[in-house]
Amino acid sequence: MSLYKRKDSSAWWLKVTIGGRKIQRSTGTHDKVKAQEYHDTLKAQLWQQERLGVKPTRSWREAVVRWLTETSDKATHNEDIRKLAWMHQYLGELTLDDINQDVIDQIRSVKLKEVSKATTNRYLALIRSILIRARDEWEWIDKVPKIRLFKESNSRERSLTFDQVKALMHELPMHQRETVMFALATGLRQRNVLALEWSQVNLDLRHAWVQGTQSKNRRPIAVPLEEYKRSERGRVGKDLICTNPKKESIGGKTHTTGGLVQRSLTARDYAKALGLNKEVKPKPS
Known about the structure:
By secondary structure, the chain is an alpha+beta fold.
């Protein structure tokens, strides 16, 4: 029987066999008529893939899971997860073929109201990178929409004056001041400051270093410690130079709203990859 019910689910399930390949999954609906429509559509698609060589329809979720798996060693991996979790509200229910210029323009417009052009570019560039890989390496799609980035200014350098530093310290709570002062004195990124260990510090030479595997550009960073002395040790953690003043939100939980019964393993993988605290479940076709 192609459609059937399971004891642990109120939705209809289907069983299809094409070319020796057996597929069993939830239709995501309690309506038998709609379940039969979904079954027939899926069976036709599978036949086209098997007999005519038509590429199967791939979802954005599948692309996200594969991207995060293949780029897990990226220095900005956690930033990708945070960005992709935000994009879910616009792309999470789409196939790769559904992502067109209108979808990209909507994301660009919404994000630009929240952040700067430079930050908006980082989101758009991530979408573009995933789609290009899906076209050129995975061969999942044949074309990619043209994604234009905003023109950015090259001048990002800025230094704080003594009065600005003094005002900043006055506004910060006590437990954050030492960490911020260390960052100002060394010029290190927040991630590098919070991950720096005593094993990477030579107080006699007043020198520290960030390993290449920990830096954004994968190159080691030499850090002179002219103002730091041996007496500083012991004021913070045993292993870390600076304790984390505020637990980072990267990789945290993002609340989502439901859908229907989980259709495939992809939904679980997608939710897990983005750190969603509730499985994002697909809508019925």
